[in-house]
Design goal:
It is a single chain. This protein is an alpha/beta fold and 432 residues long. The protein has helices spanning 23-34, 85-92, 104-116, 126-139, 153-164, 191-207, 216-224, 268-280, 282-287, 298-305, 321-329, 351-358, 371-379, 390-406, 421-431, and strands spanning 8-13, 40-47, 68-72, 144-149, 169-174, 210-213, 229-231, 253-261, 288-296, 313-317, 333-337, 361-365, 382-385. It folds into two domains: 8-79 and 117-236 and 422-431, Glycogen Phosphorylase B (Rossmann fold, 3-Layer(aba) Sandwich), CATH 3.40.50; 238-406, 3-Layer(aba) Sandwich (Rossmann fold). The strands form two sheets. The chain has a seven-stranded parallel β-sheet, with helices on one face. The chain has a six-stranded parallel β-sheet with strand order 10-9-8-11-12-13, sandwiched between helices. Mean pLDDT is 88; it is low at 81-97 and 240-249.
């Protein structure tokens, strides 16, 4: 990292940071890597003792040795919620049971989380952080402030600092929406709590100089709420692409899902179609393999295990980010899922960009006319389906399989340069 005295300075407030794993870490880890190349010296403010649901210590090597990192202690109420057992742990990881799968403990945990910890369980870090950073900013000059959420408590820190330092330019980065995210309606909010969430969100939109969105649709939705919103998507590392593995190295036709899969994004139609193909086509059964790399909901796994598909599953569990990239390149078809309702069409899962860089075909599920569908069409990288489009889905998988079997299953990567981490950081620096 080339830091010089002419660089402007930006303070970034984040919760997720190495050794935290998962896609939420990658965005600002990469921005801080490239910002000095565009005239900005970053400082990162993070918790000293956070409670991360996923840990990936390999990511720590990606943190620049020149990066200034400040840490203060955080108190989180999760330790008091262990009475909720596994349900609470799943909730921390962004998963929770829905419908008939909900136990009374799960229901209570969700209700407490949504109504007592507003906007989230990291809210107790807001006041001590504001007190610490007020003193820090009086003693150290910074040109810009960035808060990145979720957790959206980070934006409340920015909100208070903006009141104290009105000339400090504030960018509120929303990696996911706040009240418009799909699971918001499952939080069992009281009328008072819902009003509180929406009021705080509106204050952030109204006071931030710029609101960043990670999708085109989210940016438009934020604008309608009064935010000065701009879209900078997530992206991929140019040097993480590597050479695509030759097709003849693969003895199986591998469909892989990489990441966290919870019940709200479970593509049941896919498992049904695969069961049909396995039952109807012995040749397909002989060659097919379904791979899970990451954290898959136990109830989803149990249902698949009790089906014909179950014996063709390889479940690797959570692996390092580097290993997950290797698994992408060893696969033939990469699965990505989104929440099915229309309000989620603006969600672009961060892994899609690494999927793109792998050169492999992508199978996507989500609402019609989603931002993911737009990206897949622009890059000619795969096909997007709704959750009830079984006939077209079956035809697509068979087509991919037959092309794989014939040795002609290759994808030409059209221009994806706009999604490289370096080019995205250049756009961020221009906004700063």
């Amino acid at each position: 990292m080339n830091v010089n005295m002419e660089n402007k300075k930006v303070l970034i407030i984040a919760y997720y940071w190495p050794p935290a794993g998962g896609p939420g870490v990658q965005r600002w880890l990469k921005f801080t890597k490239y910002l000095p190349d565009f005239g900005w010296e970053p400082t990162v403010f993070i918790p000293e003792n956070p409670s991360y649901p996923i840990v990936d210590e390999t990511l720590e090597k990606d943190v620049s040795k020149d990066l200034h990192v400040i840490k203060t202690k955080i108190w989180e109420p999760y330790q008091l919620a262990e009475i909720f057992g596994k349900d609470n742990k799943k909730f921390k990881a962004g998963q929770f049971d829905v419908g008939e799968n909900q136990s009374w403990k799960s229901k209570l945990s969700i209700w407490v989380r949504g109504n007592f910890f507003i906007p989230d369980a990291r809210v107790f870090w807001v006041k001590p952080s504001v007190d610490f950073l007020k003193k820090f900013l009086r003693e150290n000059h910074y040109d810009a402030l960035v808060t990145t959420g979720p957790p959206h408590s980070m934006h409340l820190i920015g909100l208070e600092l903006k009141k104290e330092f009105p000339n400090l330019k504030w960018i509120a980065d929303f990696r996911d929406p706040w009240t418009e995210i799909s699971y918001y309606k499952h939080l069992k909010l009281t009328q008072w709590a819902d009003k509180k969430h929406r009021a705080l969100e509106q204050q952030v939109f109204s006071n931030a100089d710029v609101t960043l969105a990670t999708s085109y649709t989210d940016a438009e939705n934020f604008k309608r709420k009064g935010a000065n919103a701009i879209c900078i998507t997530n992206g991929y590392e140019q040097d993480s692409n590597g050479e695509n593995l030759k097709q003849d190295q693969s003895k199986k036709f591998v469909l892989s899902y990489i990441g966290v899969l919870e019940q709200l994004r479970n593509p049941e139609v896919l498992w049904q179609v695969l069961d049909e193909l396995i039952t109807e086509d012995k040749d397909f059964q002989k060659h097919f393999q379904l791979k899970f790399i990451g954290r898959i909901d136990n109830k989803i796994l149990a249902k698949i295990d009790n089906s014909p598909l179950g014996r063709l599953v390889v479940n690797r569990g959570y692996v390092s980010h580097a290993e997950s990239n290797l698994e992408m390149r060893m696969s033939d078809l990469l699965l990505i899922t989104n929440f099915p309702d229309e309000s989620s069409k603006g969600i672009i899962p961060g892994k899609i960009f690494e999927y793109l860089a792998s050169g492999k075909h992508i199978l996507s599920f989500g609402p019609e006319d989603s931002d993911v569908k737009r990206i897949l069409e622009e890059t000619d990288a795969g096909q997007h389906f709704s959750y009830n489009d079984a006939v077209a889905l079956k035809a697509f998988i068979l087509k991919c399989y037959l092309q794989w079997k014939s040795g002609k299953y290759h994808r030409n990567i059209t221009s994806i340069e706009q999604f490289s981490r370096r080019n995205l950081t250049k756009k961020l620096a221009e906004i700063l």
